[in-house]
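User: I'm writing a tutorial on reading structure tokens. Could you give me a worked example: one chain, its sequence, then its tokens, then a sentence or two explaining what the tokens reveal?
Assistant: Sure. Here is the example chain.
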Amino acid sequence: MRKAICYTLVSAMIFTMVACGTKSSSSDASESSVVASLESAKESSASDIKVSNLGTKSIKKPLLSQSEDDLDTRGDEEFGGVFLGISIEEFNAAGFAFGDSVDVEFSNGAKFTDLPYYNGYYVNAGENLLIGYPGYGDIKLAQNYGKDLYVEAGLKEGDTASVILNEKGKYLDIQNVMDISYKDDRDQYPSDVVFANFRNVTVGKLKPGVVYRSASPVDNQHMRAKYADALAKEAGIKYDIDISDNETKLEKHMAKDDFDSPHFLSLYEDGKVIPLAMNMNYFSEDFLNKICLGFRAIAENEGPYLIHCVEGKDRTGFFLMLLEAFAGASYQEIVDDYMITYDNYFEITKEKDPEKYNVLKERNLDRMIKFVCGDDDSVDITTADLKAYAESFLKKTGLSDEKLVKLAERLVEA
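And here are its predicted structure tokens:
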């Protein structure tokens, strides 16, 4: 069912959301999309609007309102969370700024308090935030590597929500330290390889020329698809592990006017692409099931293999961390490969920016490795037998001993 969400920003300190239902075609329903309409301002007799600790205010006219058609607003099915249907620019123009602390309150009683408002996922795994990530367009309530807050909040059509300023600049220090962004312009990068975040992974005992990772060769939202595809063809890729897409999304990508990835298309037509559509919640059963499907596909199909999500960073980072550990890579080898992505996109290296390098490593990769090691605080992940932990983890996902043997035959040097 298609939904329309009508929004009105009633002051620089509070943003209200109202959900209301409409109907559309069955194709729209299959996408579970939500369409937002920012209705034009009208004189209002609204009163007694509570604005956090700022007291009670009577708002006679919204400070910001406009009329827009087909502004997609929805629960994020891929990553989980709640898009609030107002652009980053509009939200910030209303008086909010990255680094602020905010509260989000829903009319069904769900509350999320003292949330950092960042332009990136600068919180630990399992922690909540309000995010204005440039790639999203709209602001979003989310949990980093965690649960779907749309589901957790019990949201449904007709609910309302407010975003309220809690404390100005409370998290500004973290925002300033962690603020990172990248360009989608090929001319800003030294090579196609760097731009596409493309590389052969040879850590541990991985066979050379067998496992590759990159940005997406089919999803062109960051303008990298054709470059990743050309490099995949050059590398002789025979099987594609698409971590981010499902069949519907793949068809949409390939139907776009800017689709220019003939090698990916040939693999797809030959049945040599597995679309896993993995979310980011590696604590979830669904994530573990998709890990099993991906590794089983490698065991059952001939390489070389290309493994990617959209950027080749987070979900790909987890998948490759696990694969590399299975192949006998050391902790430092896994770190070195993972952090190449941050050099490619953001030019963050241990030498250039040790503070950001260490925070990214510790909050993202180290947390993933700790999870694979059973979330046991007594385990030193820097010296642990990561191969043994990886094998145990893969068995827990449902991968059989037979498949693990075949996986090793495909990937690991004798």
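What the tokens reveal: The CA atoms of residues 196 and 227 lie 6 Å apart. The chain has two domains: 3-178, 186-411.
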